[in-house]
């Protein structure tokens, strides 16, 4: 029988301090050339090992080989000039100096496929691989070529589909697209964002997920959250259409967030990765707190469709905090799994 409530993380985990400066986004690498290649592989092995020690069921690379979840993918594409930068507002929230799209975008070679093969060699557990979503990619660039957000997103969707097919062939079980931009540009999401995502997963036989969150626990995000009021109803705008989409799994921020949990009713029938770990605080959840979040979600998500997860990536957190949070996630899931088994017997 399949294990109920399989645990996983949203994606990124802290890197060892010999590879990159800890607790820093876009942290520069401390190694170079051959040493960097081997250092990244060693970090990936360590990250896998830590997930296994914590009892995580669906494991990942912890994004150890990338500097940033969007930028690293874009760096491998043609048509984007990283020397030609413009300042834009990312997700209407914070200014960043971003590269410019100067011509047709394309993927001259695969980006993460070798890393995925390496992870596949290390474990027989199910593996999940994260890619940026098309809408989040266009939001991290200045477009001087297509002059249309929708057109550029469509081109990225085609590129992501090529990469996803190769990841599937490399043995990845779940391919996840990170779309924090889905929580900001609701009209675009409904007009063409979900269609682009479906283009990105076209023809895949492995499972697919979309991760939609309120971002890392960095200041720009926590400041933005303060403006959202006491109830965060952003998900409500896009859930009806997502429920109708071909995406198998929806990964969400739930614990400590102001998202009314009953919004999950709008995606009933989908598998849901329920964020039960807050990544915006160093406070470690107790197993009972994790269990509570999962119990609440179980009112709207069938037990066989509920995947306990973190709210977002944990790359910016201290390593010991991230490890303790993974342990709490496993312990909390174990509590609820036991309750479900007891119910089953009665
Ligand atoms: Zn996230």
Characterize the structure shown.
The chain has a single domain (33-344), classed as TIM Barrel (Alpha-Beta Barrel). The protein has helices spanning 33-53, 71-75, 113-122, 134-138, 149-169, 186-200, 219-226, 234-243, 287-297, 319-345, and strands at 78-90, 94-106, 128-132, 142-143, 174-178, 207-212, 249-253, 271-275, 306-309. Strands 3-5-6-7-8-9 form a 6-stranded parallel beta sheet. Strands 1-2-4 form a 3-stranded mixed beta sheet. Helices cover 38% and strands 17% of the residues. The model has no long low-confidence stretch (mean pLDDT 95). It has 346 residues and is α/β, with parallel strands linked by helices. Residues 10, 180, 211, 213, 312-313 line the site of zinc ion.
Low-confidence stretches are: none
Categorize the overall geometry: globular
Bound molecules: zinc ion
Indicate the mean pLDDT.
95
Structure keywords:
5-methyltetrahydropteroyltriglutamate-homocysteine S-methyltransferase activity; 2-hydroxypropyl-CoM lyase activity; 17% strand; TIM Barrel; UROD/MetE-like_sf; Met_Synth_C/arc; Met_Synthase_cat; single chain; globular; alpha/beta; 3-stranded mixed β-sheet; 6-stranded parallel β-sheet; 346 residues; binds zinc ion
